[in-house]
Amino acid sequence: MDNLKRQVGIEAAKFVKNGMVVGLGTGSTAAYFVAELGRRVAAENLRITAVTTSSVTSAQARKLNIPLKDIDEVEAIDLTVDGADEIDQTLNGIKGGGAALLMEKIVATYSKDYIWIVDESKMVAHLGAFPLPVEVVPFGCGQLFRLFEKSGFKPTFRLDDKGALWLTDSGNHIIDLHMNEISAPEKLARLLDDTVGVVEHGLFNDMVKTVIIASETEGVKIVTK
Ligand SMILES: O=C[C@H](O)[C@H](O)[C@H](O)COP(=O)(O)O
Fold first, then answer.
1. pTM, whole model, 2 decimals?
2. Domains along the sequence of the chain with CATH
3. Could you tell me if the ipTM is greater than 0.95?
4. How many angstroms does the Cα of residue 64 sit away from the middle of ligand 1?
5. How high is the mean pLDDT of the chain?
């Protein structure tokens, strides 16, 4: 698995050219992309500026001497590369397994180009086997949890290793919805967008045009929409 993740990370880094502003995703797959960029910055004198999608990725980028800027300091983001938890046949996806969905969606929204990198296990017929992360404001999140229960969304609060409610980089909590199958991702996204207390959700519908997939049998392939 790690080998497949490394392959797509290295492949995606080939899209990065001198002078670009690059969005750095979060997670175990995106970390290989960031590592390869760091290698190229050191070995090839690649000149880029990066914006990141989480404190974890910022820390990795700093260690690798990748120049970072705040998202509001850059004119535009040329390309963002990120992982995903599930991707369906239409290239809708679920993200946020690493709790970075809010910053990830903001960075993706302001990127001219957006690529996901995954191993083949992430490609699915229907979204929903992976619990859908929803970032929620702490105030009233117990009420929101009960609303999700009544709606049949099978919510669970995400906890940290001490058993406390998970705190995101933006100071919010995460409720994971165990829906098993999401038959209408657009409809669910609209409903969540309209729900008070929801900051963001992990449905990334119609956002990505390019996915780089690695499999044991077929190697690396690029799927576009
Ligand atoms: O919040 C985390 C992100 O959405 C990740 O990109 C996603 O969870 C995939 O992570 P991984 O590459 O570790 O499977």
1. 0.97
2. 2-123+205-215 (3.40.50.1360), 132-199 (3.30.70.260)
3. yes
4. 20
5. 98
